[in-house]
């Protein structure tokens, strides 16, 4: 459909230099009769608690971030949104809440993925919603079981009945070898519950043998009938997309259902055009040209988790300081916009109009089957010289003025030229190391909302749970396993934070005990304190100077890297030094009389290399240790209920 252009146009060629002796020339035929595969869109995966801090942002900044992600013709204009089906288990950067913590429990208001899907749909009514599980609640016992299939079906039903959200696709399990019997059982469960959601399979990486589903479907017609889309994660070996010939012969489309620039994990605060932007410009085209993938989903839409957690800066945007309202619109947003603002799901790739440039770079062409509008997404990353391309338009394609947009190190999603084809042809000279969109559509726009400056986490800090809705999540606290919810305190103290998960979930990645994180990784000397109340047997913990909470660094670790003061209901206490892939060291320990029927005051304090732990005003330990000099704070438990109040850092 033709869209209304929101900035002035002139039918003159702007900024297009004449070819010179160094130019590389090429000819491209844009033929509307060469219809190829259906384009299913570009999206992002909100999972692994990657969006946790976004919901804590104040307005108007929160809406500005959402606009940059989802609003058509504004920013990334994402066309898919995949969300995690939470299980109260750590799934990379924290735990996302389960909607069913027992076979009879149903609560479709826990967590933030429901909210995020609503906000995305509000901005783009046509956005495609996906879902995928990482772990599962403990009561299902075994992940690949009929109970788990019913659990997944219940999530999809709840999205529809509670929010009017129809989730078009659901996966099987994230990056885990698939079970064909379970895939068929899931299809039967969805049919039995009259859920029209299609199954994508199997969201595996190369380490799990991601293409094994091809032979399994060939041998099992029922499995083949159950799978609507074949999906892969990070489909590259040594930087090259590797799609076997058999994948091109199946009836199902193939998608890269989790992907990202290779440099993202190491480019904190600097994922601009030179890092994530340039790589995404290549990745989106490469996934189709070399892989045959007709959809790509990036993990994640926004980095809204703390930097000391696993895989920092995975997002298209960067927004993990809600107390400041600050965020970063990174180059990845505009690299994505060069496709999403110029082609819509349901458009068709034109087979003979996709290929490679003479020097460095490539191009893909997509066409609207209804209007015959078309767009070419062309990148010259790595090229050293300009390249002139001669385009011939035929096969019923629109021959309207061609609008040209460019992004590189000096331009950001800028409308640079309009070309009027003559006799169905035109030429243009493309700068090296750039990304372009050429289109007959109009309406594209570069969003212009600007954030306030960044600021450090507030210090001193006190968490006030009395202002949080009951069963809600306290601002800035990021659950890393289990679930910490605001509930009425025992003995009339108002509202408290309570760890509520007592049955260990079926994990996916790391396996820490329940704890929740906040603060500033640069904090050095401080006093962390909290009132605590046991609700039966188990442990209560204060954690300080946490300098790493990357669960992939040690998937068996119970604690992050830092110091832990723990106390159990029998009166046993210990002050621990913890580190990944290292033994937990007890710096001090003891036993005391413990009355679990009343509240107690715990303190963990740091001053230089002096570390102390206190209970009810009595110092239990004072030790000297210099292994951890700075870091964030946390509170935690074992898999037991406990309450926390008056949490403060000063």
Q: Could you tell me the radius of gyration in angstroms?
A: 27 Å
Number of strands: 39
Mean pLDDT, nearest integer?
93
The parts where pLDDT drops under 50 for at least 5 residues are 1-22, 265-269
Query: Per the principal axes of the C-alpha atoms, what is the gross shape?
Result: globular
User: How many strands, which pairing sense, and closed or not: the largest β-sheet?
Assistant: 8 strands, antiparallel
Number of domain modules = 3
Strand content: 25-35%
Q: What's the CATH H-level superfamily name of the largest domain?
A: Glycosidases
Number of helices: 8
User: What's the architecture of the largest domain in CATH terms?
Assistant: Alpha-Beta Barrel
CATH class wording of the largest domain: Alpha Beta
CATH-assigned fold name of the largest domain: TIM Barrel
How far is the N terminus from the C terminus? Answer: 58 Å
Roughly what percent helix?
A: 10-25%
Structural class: alpha+beta
Short summary:
By secondary structure, the chain is an alpha+beta fold. The chain has 3 domains: 24-36 and 349-439, Glycosidases (TIM Barrel, Alpha-Beta Barrel); 40-342, Glycosidases (TIM Barrel); 461-649, Jelly Rolls.
Task: Kindly describe this structure.
The chain folds into 3 domains: 24-36 and 349-439, TIM Barrel (Alpha-Beta Barrel), CATH 3.20.20; 40-342, Alpha-Beta Barrel (TIM Barrel); 461-649, Exo-inulinase, domain 1 (Jelly Rolls), CATH 2.60.120.560. It is 14% helix and 33% strand. It contains 8 helices and 39 strands. The strands form 7 sheets. Strands 2, 16, 17, 18, 19, 21, 22 and 24 form an 8-stranded antiparallel sheet that branches. Helix 1 crosses helix 2.
């Amino acid at each position: 459909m033709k869209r209304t252009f929101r900035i002035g146009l002139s039918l003159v060629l702007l900024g297009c230099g004449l070819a010179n002796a160094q130019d590389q020339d090429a000819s491209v035929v844009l033929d509307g009769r060469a219809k190829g595969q259906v384009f299913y869109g570009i999206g992002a995966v909100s999972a692994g608690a990657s969006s946790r801090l976004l919901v804590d942002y104040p307005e108007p900044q929160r809406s500005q971030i959402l606009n940059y992600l989802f609003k058509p013709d504004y920013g990334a204009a994402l066309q898919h949104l995949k969300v995690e089906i939470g299980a109260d288990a750590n799934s990379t950067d924290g735990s996302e809440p389960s909607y069913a913590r027992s076979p009879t429990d149903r609560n479709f208001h826990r967590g933030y993925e429901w909210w995020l899907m609503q906000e995305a749909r509000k901005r783009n009514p046509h956005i495609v919603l996906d879902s995928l599980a990482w772990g599962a609640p403990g009561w299902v016992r075994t992940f690949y079981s009929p109970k788990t299939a019913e659990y997944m079906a219940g999530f999809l039903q709840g999205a529809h009945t509670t929010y009017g959200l129809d989730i078009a696709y659901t996966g099987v399990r994230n990056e885990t070898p698939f079970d064909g019997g379970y895939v068929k059982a899931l299809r039967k469960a969805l049919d039995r519950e009259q859920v029209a959601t299609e199954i994508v399979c199997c969201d595996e990486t190369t380490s799990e043998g991601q293409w094994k589903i091809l032979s399994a479907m060939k041998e099992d017609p029922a499995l083949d009938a159950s799978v609507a889309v074949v999906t892969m994660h990070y489909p590259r070996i040594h930087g090259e997309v590797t799609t076997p010939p058999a994948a091109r012969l199946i009836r199902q489309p193939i998608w890269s259902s989790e992907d990202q620039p290779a440099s993202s994990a190491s480019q904190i605060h600097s994922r601009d055009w030179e890092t994530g932007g340039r790589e995404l410009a290549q990745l989106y085209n490469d996934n189709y040209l070399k892989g045959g993938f007709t959809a790509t989903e990036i993990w994640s839409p926004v980095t809204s988790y703390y930097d000391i957690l696993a895989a920092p800066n995975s997002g298209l945007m960067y927004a993990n300081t809600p107390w400041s309202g600050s965020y970063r619109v990174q180059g990845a947003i505009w690299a994505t916009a060069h496709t999403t603002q110029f082609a819509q799901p349901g458009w068709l790739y034109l087979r003979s109009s996709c290929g490679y440039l003479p020097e460095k770079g490539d191009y893909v062409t997509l066409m609207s089957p209804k209007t015959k509008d078309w767009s070419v997404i062309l990148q010259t990353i790595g090229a050293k010289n300009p390249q002139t391309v001669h385009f011939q338009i035929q096969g019923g394609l629109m021959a309207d003025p061609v609008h040209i947009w460019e992004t590189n190190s000096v331009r950001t999603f800028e409308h640079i030229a309009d070309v009027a084809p003559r006799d169905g042809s035109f030429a243009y000279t493309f700068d090296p190391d750039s990304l372009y969109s050429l289109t007959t559509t109009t309406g594209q726009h570069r969003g212009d909302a600007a954030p306030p400056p960044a600021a450090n986490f507030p210090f001193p800090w006190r968490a006030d749970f009395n202002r949080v809705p009951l069963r809600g999540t306290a601002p800035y606290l990021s659950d890393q396993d289990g679930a910490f919810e605001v509930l009425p305190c025992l003995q009339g103290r108002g509202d408290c934070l309570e760890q509520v998960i007592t049955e260990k979930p079926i994990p996916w990645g790391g396996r820490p005990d329940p704890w929740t994180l906040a603060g500033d990784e640069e904090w050095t000397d401080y006093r962390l304190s909290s009132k605590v109340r046991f609700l039966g047997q188990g442990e209560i913990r204060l954690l300080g100077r946490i300098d790493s909470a990357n669960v992939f660094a040690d998937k068996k670790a119970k604690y992050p890297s830092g110091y832990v003061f723990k106390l159990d209901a029998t009166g046993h206490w210990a002050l621990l030094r913890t580190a990944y892939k290292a033994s937990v060291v007890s710096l001090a320990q003891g036993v005391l009389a413990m009355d679990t029927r009343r509240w107690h005051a715990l303190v963990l304090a740091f001053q230089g290399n002096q570390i102390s732990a206190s209970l009810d005003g009595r110092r239990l330990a004072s030790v000297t240790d210099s292994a951890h000099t700075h870091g964030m704070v946390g509170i935690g438990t074992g898999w037991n209920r406990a309450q926390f109040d008056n949490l403060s850092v000063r």
